[in-house]
Amino acid sequence: MEALRIEQIFEKDGEIEVTGLPFKKGQYIEIILIPKLTRKKRPRLTVGRFRQSGLIGIWKDRDDIQNSSVYARQLREQAQHRGHYDLAG
User: Which of 27, 45, 70, 83 is the most exposed place for a label (fewest CB within 10 A)?
Assistant: First the structure.
């Protein structure tokens, strides 16, 4: 079975209650608690904020990019294959 990750905020000092786990009576498990230093909330990216971000049109003056859609697709493909190693050869 894969590891189960649950993020929860302590409501009482020194106590935590976790219910609905997929384990059966008598099954051996290990519990590791790791405190998180901060819980950051990212602001929502609205259309207005995206337009103001400066990202739209950043490639318009580049002479080395003829078709920005093709270029973006190539970048995505490179990113997907990054870190994959051919173990057979």
Answer: 83
Task: For 20-71, write each residue's pLDDT tens digit.
Answer: 888 899 999 998 888 887 767 777 888 998 888 888 888 788 888 888 888 8
pTM: 0.37
CB 67 within 8 A of CB 55: no
> Could you tell me if residue 3 is inside a domain?
no
Question: Which residue blocks in 9-54 are alpha helix, DSSP H?
Answer: 47-52
- Backbone φ and ψ of 12, nearest 5°: -130, 145
Boundaries of domain holding 76: 47-81
Q: What are 80's two structure tokens?
A: 């997907």
Residue 38 lies in a domain: no
Helix (H, G, I), strand (E, B) or coil at 69: helix
